[in-house]
């Protein structure tokens, strides 16, 4: 925690800037989506529908009330794609990028906000970092578009094919999960491409690259194959990401998709394992997955992607820190550690707090929605986990829910994208810590 | 953590003593329950049924495969009651009590084991404490028996009535949840007494007294109404216990039992709120409660009672420490605190570890049972939460489960009663901590 001198008035923290930035973009996006030209019907969406869609796009969630391809016009889809790109990259990244490109001087306040937004370890070199992030993101998205274009051009013609390739490349890279394949069948996501290798591989690659975080790219770029030289955080992210793709894929292969032919079974198992930790596309009908499989997806959705990435959720590092904390307790070590690096005690407190917040909000939201909508609890929990993990997978109930449930999902999406701590730090004004004045007293747990 | 010099061989830790103690009593109990005279049929139970029942009794859980009243003979019921009393008071408490009463000298090792078993803050005065615990427990159980006797004597005659009063008093005080009312209708628990004020008040009082912990009694005895003078831990326990009785009762009153007449509604709401945090009696048919209500009960079951009590589960203090940790993070304090006392960082790591372990085991167990038995996930999760919280509430599936599921429940009951950390400390030999040798490195969470 840095302590900065500040005047009592007119002070706005970097956390508040991030929150206000997200809120403004959501509001502007909602108004744009209410324009008559945004919907195919030519009537414009209601405020609550527009707000839900804009929040879902900016928070890169992908939960939708209306099928994106059949309800929104090309203009509306363009707005949604723009909101995804802004939300995915982080509003501040975009803002400072523009400032940097336009040659204006960037102040310390902006740099510090940047640092919070991309979860960088320090303020130094933040502008260089931002340029690297922007360049990499655009390159990856364009490569993704180029690879996807032939498939979509074959299916939808040249113009629409290129638009589809761009839309899905950006949506996958930003882990947004919005799709336009609803023209085949509304809300069908990528199920019609479940055995198409190019679409499978490209979308999975984009999801993973987008989800491991900007700082991990830097490590990969700087240290290539020398894994030992990576930052501890990058090592943790890559290890956890790999594990959380492989293990669920094995489960899905053996227990969920056993009636499929071999090739489809492998693709489907792998894709359904990559997607729940915040991407939100699906190539299998999730309502047909067993309740145990749905619960596994809920756990993956709550876990989410990695910090400083386009992904939301509790974060892979949070889970890793908790596991490492447990191992240190089991082995009676005084400190938790990863790859021979000690984890600060403060980080463990933060991780425990985030874990508790996610579990509480996900359960409370699901129980309220299940109660007022009279739907099965597991279905409601699936939807709230999807919202708070900014995933966008759905068992199909979102369009039918009432306004209160939609508001709950909007709040959960916002919480999941902005990050619980950012939200709370923005709400509660900073104070010097004084807890240590109190004498220590033991309390027994467990 | 105390560090003690020890020889490499023949060393047995207090954690190992506690585990071995519980295991021996369970094994002896199982063998006794296999005797032909233990069952009404005169054939004796199978080993797996006897093991399940003995584990359930020693771990004061109350999950049963056979209805206690109709399957077991008076001898079998006596064995079960003895196992409940031993398990509830803690094996070590009993062992050392006997030693103390018989006038033998008690060594440091025994005192230190005692300390772990009753979660006392220090070794000093441990024998005096044990006598106080034993005296209080017996007094409370006898008072409970005396109050319940008239009701049961009216319903079942003098001899059976007194036996029933004793059985239910001990079972309630030890938070065991075993009952003999199955003579009216098997597995009906206390539903036939749902509007009987004496039974309601007495059982609830016994549950609460047994569940707040031995050390809290001491505080209440020493400081009577001077709440400010209480230990921080006692304050936390009483506050959390009160909150976790009141809030769920309000929910149950308004959302679950609204079709009942007023008096029954109040009693039922209150009783169903007191019982899930490890007692396990029920006065309402839980299969009729909504899924949201069942989820609320699952959360209460996982939370459990208070440390150093007859109750199991994750413990009220663990929940409180996590909430306090979250508040300290929100307010950017360097340390978590309660009632102007600082909580050691170590305790927060332990609490996060226990929370993670309980959630993981409860989910994993429920998912496996749901998968292999092909039952709804929420029903299976209800059963695993009941086992790991040593509660004993059931949606009625336990008797029908297969041997693998029974083994999973046995392991969860044992884990819940012994406490996850005791189990792991017993398995992993102590080592000096060396984690601090590593340099610290930041990692971003959430
Ligand atoms: K998403
Ligand atoms: K119980």
UniProtKB/TrEMBL annotation, chains A, B:
It is a multi-pass membrane protein. Pfam families: TrkH. It is found in: Cell membrane. Keywords: Cell membrane, Ion transport, Membrane, Transmembrane, Transmembrane helix, Transport. The chain crosses the membrane at residues 12-38, 79-101, 162-183, 195-215, 236-255, 311-330, 351-369, 375-395, 407-428. InterPro entries: Cat_transpt (IPR003445). The keyword Membrane applies. The keyword Membrane applies. PANTHER family: KTR SYSTEM POTASSIUM UPTAKE PROTEIN B, TRK SYSTEM POTASSIUM UPTAKE PROTEIN TRKG-RELATED. This is Trk family potassium uptake protein.
């Amino acid at each position: 925690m840095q302590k900065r001198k500040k005047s009592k008035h007119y002070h706005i923290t970097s956390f508040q800037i991030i929150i206000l930035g997200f809120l403004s973009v959501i509001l502007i996006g909602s108004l744009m989506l209410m324009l008559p030209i945004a919907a195919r019907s030519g009537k414009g969406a209601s405020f609550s529908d527009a707000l839900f869609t804009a929040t879902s796009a900016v928070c890169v969630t992908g939960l939708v009330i209306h099928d994106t391809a059949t309800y929104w016009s090309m203009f509306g889809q363009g707005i949604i794609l723009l909101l995804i790109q802004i939300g995915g990259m982080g509003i501040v990244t975009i803002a400072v990028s523009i400032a940097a490109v336009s040659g204006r001087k960037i102040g310390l306040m902006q740099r510090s906000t940047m640092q919070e937004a991309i979860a960088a370890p320090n303020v130094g070199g933040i502008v260089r970092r931002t340029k690297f992030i922007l360049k990499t993101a655009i390159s990856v998205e364009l490569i993704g578009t180029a690879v996807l274009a032939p498939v979509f051009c074959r299916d939808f013609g040249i113009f629409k094919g290129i638009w589809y390739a761009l839309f899905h490349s950006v949506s996958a890279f930003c882990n947004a999960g919005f799709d336009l394949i609803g023209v085949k069948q509304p809300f069908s996501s990528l199920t019609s491409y479940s055995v198409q290798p190019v679409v499978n591989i490209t979308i999975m690659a984009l999801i993973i690259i987008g989800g491991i975080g900007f700082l991990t790219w830097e490590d990969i770029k700087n240290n290539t194959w020398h894994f030992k030289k990576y930052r501890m955080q990058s090592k943790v992210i890559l290890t956890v990401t790999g594990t959380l793709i492989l293990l669920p894929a094995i489960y899905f292969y053996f227990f969920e998709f056993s009636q499929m032919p071999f090739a489809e079974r492998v693709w489907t198992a792998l894709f359904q394992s990559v997607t729940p930790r915040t991407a939100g596309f699906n190539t299998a009908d999730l309502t047909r997955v067993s309740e145990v499989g749905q619960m596994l997806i809920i756990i993956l959705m709550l876990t989410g992607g990695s910090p400083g990435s386009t992904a939301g959720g509790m974060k892979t590092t949070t889970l890793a820190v908790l596991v490492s904390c447990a191992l240190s307790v089991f082995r009676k070590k005084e400190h938790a550690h990863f790859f021979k690096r000690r984890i600060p005690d403060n980080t463990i407190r933060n991780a425990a707090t985030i874990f508790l917040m996610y579990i509480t909000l996900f359960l409370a939201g699901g129980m309220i929605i299940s109660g007022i909508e009279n739907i099965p609890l597991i279905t409601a929990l699936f939807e709230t986990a999807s919202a708070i993990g900014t995933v966008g997978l759905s068992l199909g109930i979102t369009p039918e829910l009432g306004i209160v449930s939609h508001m709950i999902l909007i709040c959960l999406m916002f919480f999941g994208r902005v990050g619980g701590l950012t939200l709370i730090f923005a709400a509660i004004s900073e104070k010097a810590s004084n807890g240590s004045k109190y004498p220590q007293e033991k309390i027994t747990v467990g």
